[in-house]
Amino acid sequence: MKVLSVASELYPLIKTGGLADVAGALPGALAPEGVEIRSLIPGYRPVMAALKKAESAAEFEDLFGGPARLLAARVGALDLFVLDAPHLFVRDGGPYGGVDGRDFPDNALRFAALGKVGALIGQGAVPGFVPQVVHAHDWQAGLTAAYLHYSEAPRPGSVITVHNLAFQGQFPAATFGQLGLPPQAFSIEGVEYYGGVGFLKAGLQLSDHITTVSPTYALEIQTSHAGMGLDGLLRARAGELSGILNGIDTQVWNPETDKLVAARYSAKSLAGRAVNKKALQDRFGLERDDKKFLVGVVSRLSWQKGLDLLLQCLPTFEACDAQLAMLVSGDPGLEAAFQEATQTYAGRVGAYFGYEEKLAHLVQAGADAILVPSRFEPCGLTQLCALRYGAPPIVARVGGLADTVVDANEMAVQAGCATGLQFSPVSSEALSGAVRRGAHLFQQKKIWKKIQANGMKADVSWTFPAKHYAEIYAAVAAAQRTAA
C-alpha cells in the first residue's frame, strides 16, 4: 500500500514539537506492515540544505504567488517530496513565524499550497507514486482533504491526525477567495468555521477518517471542556474517530546504547543511573547527593504544560528535601520566574532555558522522576522516554498521560504493576501531593526499583500503533475503492 504523508514538520529535518517526531517515525514503523510512505514537506531552508540529490517530480508556474517545483529525494531512511516554493518557505525564523516570534501573515496561503500539492499527488500528479491514502497532519495540512473533496478527479482515501486541537489554523473569511476552492466549499459542511476559514475544521469535516494521538484525548475532545469549539463536529464523526497512542524511537531512546549520557545502563543493572544523577546535579548547579529525590522537567513553558503550577509548589521541594532540574523554554514571564527561583532555591532548583538534545537525554537518565503536569496533553512523548529510562513519570491524569502511566496507588503497588504517579485535578495542591508521594516512594527502595523496572519493560515503541494505522489505511482505501 502506498500512502502520502503531508506534514509541516518532519524529524530530523525540521522540528518544533511532537508532530515532527510522529511524522518522522511513521514511515519506518509502517514499513513492516507493508505500507510505503512518502512524506510531503515544505522546502524550508534547513530542508533544502539537507537535500544532497533531488529530482524534479512536477512544476507549477504559479503556486499562490510564485513558481514552484516538487522535488523527489531521499534523506536517510525518509522518502520525500519537497515543495520547493521559495516565495512561501525560504524565510528567516521558524516554520510558522519570523525571528520576532510573530506568525507569518501569509500562513494561510503557505499551507494552502502544501494541501493543494498534497491533493494533486494524491490524484496522480506523480505517475511513479500514486497513493491509495493521503494522511494529513494537523491544521497545516488540513486543506488537503478539501482540495481532494471538491475535485472532480478520482481521489484516494483520506486521513487526518490531530496532534493538538488547540492549534486550528483559523483565518478571516476574505482568505477564502485566495484558496482556489469552489464557492460551495464556504459552508458549514466545508471549510467555513465561525464565519471564517478553518483549516483544521476542514480536515475534520472532509477526511474519511480522523485519528488523534491517544484514546483518552479522543474522548476528551468530544466534550465542551476540551473540544475547543470543535466538539460538536467530533461527536458527529465519533464513528470515524480513533485514538492511537504515539510511540518513540526506541533506538534513539535506549539507555543501553545512548551515547549522549554520562553512563549507560539497563533494566538489569541501574548502576549507571547514579553516575548520570551526579552529572545532572553538577550540570544544573545542584547539591551532589544521591539520597535527594531529583525531579526532572523537559518541556515548553506554556499554560498548557501547567508549569505555572510548579512555581507554586517549590516550597514542597524544600519540605521534601527534593531537587528540581528543568530544561525549559517558552513564556518569557515564566522563564523570569524560574530564573528567580534558581536564586531563591540555590542548590535545590536548577534551570537551563532553551533546548539541547544531549541535555534532554541526561535529564531522562539522571533524574529520579520526570514531571509532566500538563493541563491537557494529547499524548506526550516525554513520559514515554521517562518510562524507557527508568525515571518514573509524575503526570496529570489527562489525555495520553492517563493512558501511558499506571499510578502507584496502593492496589497497583501490591499487584506490582505501577509505572509512575498520576494526580488529579490539575492544581498546585494536587501537584504538591504527587511530589510528596513520589518523594516518599523514592525512599522505599524496593518499591521504587519495581516501579522503575515496570516502566522500563513497557512497550513504548511504534509496533502496536503502526498496526492500528495500517488497519485504518486499509479500511479507508477499501471504502474509497467501493465508493468509486
TrEMBL record:
Residues 282-437 form the Glycosyl transferase family domain. ADP-alpha-D-glucose binds at K15. Residues 2-235 form the Starch synthase catalytic domain. Pathway: Glycan biosynthesis; glycogen biosynthesis. Keywords: Glycogen biosynthesis, Glycosyltransferase, Transferase. SUPFAM superfamilies: UDP-Glycosyltransferase/glycogen phosphorylase. InterPro entries: Glyco_trans_1 (IPR001296), GS/SS (IPR011835), Starch_synth_cat_dom (IPR013534). Its EC number is 2.4.1.21. It catalyses: [(1->4)-alpha-D-glucosyl](n) + ADP-alpha-D-glucose = [(1->4)-alpha-D-glucosyl](n+1) + ADP + H(+). GO terms for biological process: glycogen biosynthetic process. It is an enzyme of class 2 (transferase). Synthesizes alpha-1,4-glucan chains using ADP-glucose. Belongs to the glycosyltransferase 1 family. Bacterial/plant glycogen synthase subfamily. PANTHER family: ALPHA AMYLASE DOMAIN-CONTAINING PROTEIN, GRANULE-BOUND STARCH SYNTHASE 1, CHLOROPLASTIC/AMYLOPLASTIC. This is Glycogen synthase. It comes from Rhodoblastus acidophilus (Rhodopseudomonas acidophila).
